[in-house]
Design goal:
Layout lengths: L15 H11 L5 H21 L4 E2 L11 H6 E2 L12 E3 L8 E3 L12 E2 L5 H10 L3 E7 L20 H21 L4 E5 L2 H4 L3 H9 L4 H16 L6 E5 L16 H10 L4 E5 L19 E5 L5 H13 L1 H4 L2 H13 L6 E2 L16 E2 L5 E2 L3 E2 L1
Parallel strand pairs: 1-6, 6-7, 7-8, 8-9, 9-10
Antiparallel strand pairs: 2-5, 3-4, 11-14, 12-13
Helix pairs in contact: 1-2, 5-8, 8-9
Length: 377
């Protein structure tokens, strides 16, 4: 019998009220407590939506993030000046009325001093999510080599002797974050690595190679860095996510994953993989082998056109009832047929009693909360 677990890739569309609240908070029209209350409500709604849809694994919808990458730059000093455009540059393609959009990479971008962490990146997100659900809570972290975006051969060498030295510090920060998440009871962490498909696009591929590594080096070194983040955390199920970019129903790169699929599938130490079929062409799956630790596979089913994708995603977020409808049932059936995943098993056996018993042990996390360790997937 096949046991399948279902979850969203990570982010959900942020409600209009939350986007307005962030603008008001930045402008000083809301204080911090008022803004956090609105953020909390958005997370609560995201969790309720996923649970109503029957998902086994839930996220907070990344409601607290400016970008999926921004926890690093918000929590760590040394990256220099940045804003949302840092994460959105490139030639974005769109179907039909959506149209294309070009954003230039900020010219003054570059790490300017040694990285110093001010606080943990996503621990607060996880602690709040853990309180709001009895299901497996998934946390997402950016892949370390994504931050080559902040490497400037001209501006950064006063801080770091080389790109390798810079990314080594990024890995160290991410490993510290995983260690904190494990201490708090996290058992499922996803590494977001959309930059691997970006190597396939001429414009973004040439940028990455201009930082000093060839295409092959980006794959080999990038995978080594991802594996370094994951190494030694036996309590955690790690997944890795690839995509072609998604911004207002636009994408950055089209074509086949084949040039990157074999090295990633064979070398990555994650147990799960998620990708998308996107608007940019058919996805083809090849039998290219996997590492021994890779067990779990996910597909992010996207619509064939930008217009249809936007309509479906909006309906997913707007209507809890519709999210639990036959479309979801069909999606879950497809996953159950295609994706053999291992069953739930209890973690931390030496530190807790049966989590279903009335006497289950509670741990204290340092964030003013006590908790029962979760289960792993």
């Amino acid at each position: 019998m096949i046991t399948a677990h279902t979850d969203v890739v990570g982010s959900l569309l942020r409600p209009v009220a939350l986007r307005k609240a962030r603008d008001d908070w930045v402008a000083g029209r809301l204080n911090h407590a008022q803004f956090k209350s609105i953020e909390d409500r958005a997370v609560d709604e995201a969790v309720s939506l996923q649970e109503a849809a029957g998902l086994d694994i839930v996220t907070d919808g990344e409601m607290r993030r400016l970008s999926f990458q921004s926890p690093m730059t918000e929590a760590v000093d040394g990256f220099g000046p940045w804003d949302l455009n840092v994460f959105l540059w490139g030639h974005w393609h769109g179907a039909g009325a959506v149209g294309e959009r070009r954003r230039d990479r900020p010219v003054d971008l570059g790490v300017v001093s040694r990285l110093v962490r001010k606080r943990h990146l996503v621990a607060e997100e996880f602690v709040y999510l853990r309180r709001r659900t009895s299901r497996v809570a998934k946390v997402t972290l950016p892949s370390p080599s994504l931050f080559v975006n902040f490497w400037s051969p001209e501006r950064s060498q006063s801080a770091y002797a080389s790109l390798d030295h810079f990314l080594a510090d990024v890995v160290a920060i991410l490993r510290d974050e995983v260690a904190e998440l494990v201490r708090l009871g996290a058992t499922y962490v996803q590494i977001d690595a959309p930059h691997y498909p970006l190597l396939l696009a001429p414009a973004t591929g040439s940028f990455y190679e201009s930082r000093g590594w060839t295409f092959d080096q980006w794959l080999s070194r990038g995978i080594e860095l991802d594996n370094a983040v994951m190494a030694g955390f036996a309590e955690v199920t790690f997944a890795i996510h690839l995509c072609r970019g998604n911004q207002e129903s636009r994408w950055l790169v089209a074509g086949d994953y084949e040039p990157i699929a074999r090295p990633i599938f064979q070398r990555i130490h994650a147990r799960g993989f998620s990708s998308n079929t996107t608007m940019s062409g058919r996805a083809r799956l090849h039998r290219c082998g996997t590492s021994r630790t890779t067990r779990r596979w996910f597909l992010d089913w996207s619509a064939p056109s930008g217009r249809k994708r936007r309509r479906r995603k909006t309906s997913f977020v707007a209507s809890r009832k519709q999210a639990a409808s036959c479309r979801w049932n069909a999606w879950r059936s497809a996953l159950s047929a295609a994706l053999p995943l291992r069953s739930l098993e209890t973690t931390f056996p030496s530190r807790m009693k049966d989590a279903s018993s009335r006497g289950c042990a509670k741990l204290h996390d340092g964030y003013g909360d006590s908790f029962v360790p979760s289960t792993t997937v």
